[in-house]
């Protein structure tokens, strides 16, 4: 598999991708949920539900939600599963602040705990969780293989990893429509609402270079996962990846 180009949010060599991603999400945090719903026409909610329902039969109890953001996936999982404990980890303090407000409002503090941390350097012991999940987060890792290896390390033997991530449609004319929307329309909407158009230019660029489908499955295998499957959603705009340790 060919190496993929690393994309950063801002045109700067002074900060690492990790630092730039943190800064970007801190800036867009107040608008993040609104823009997700607006720009995806709420389809992102359906994607998360589909991914979580695919794991319901596993009866997840002790879960790590990587790049939890504003805790959407963690909160939704409490409605679909019956978890005992979910730790939501994110590098952005402002995203977590928004997420904590949502967790408090829904009275889920006894189940969901949010904390700031680096997904590529997890503080948890080996085999700490029966399920590790991430929605739209691994694309932002500075070192993808290191982040995935860490997810594998903290997963119990026979535990499940679920990753929901953007992918590139291959069907005409959806591929062309998708590219035009992400490249030209989405940054304009982002500029008008979040005041940070670069964040949404980065979204398009990061999706374009991300190794999706078989390429991503190969990286999962390389980082220690087995029984890897994937399911494209919405004609390939998004893909659910499932893997075991």
Molecular structure report:
This protein is of the alpha/beta class and 245 residues long. It has one domain (17-23, 36-168, 211-244): Vaccinia Virus protein VP39 (Rossmann fold, 3-Layer(aba) Sandwich), CATH 3.40.50.150. It has helices at residues 17-28, 32-40, 43-53, 72-80, 93-105, 144-153, 174-194, 197-209, 214-222, and strands at residues 62-66, 85-90, 112-116, 129-135, 155-166, 226-233, 238-244. A seven-stranded mixed sheet has the order 3-2-1-4-5-7-6, with helices on both faces. α4 links the parallel β1 and β2. The longest helix is centred in the last third of the chain and has 21 residues, at 174-194. It starts with 16 loop residues before the first helix and ends with a strand. The model has no long low-confidence stretch (mean pLDDT 90).
Report the average pLDDT across residues: 90
The name of the CATH superfamily reads Vaccinia Virus protein VP39
N-to-C span: 22 Å
**Proper CATH architecture:** 3-Layer(aba) Sandwich
Inertia-based shape: globular
CATH level 3 topology: Rossmann fold
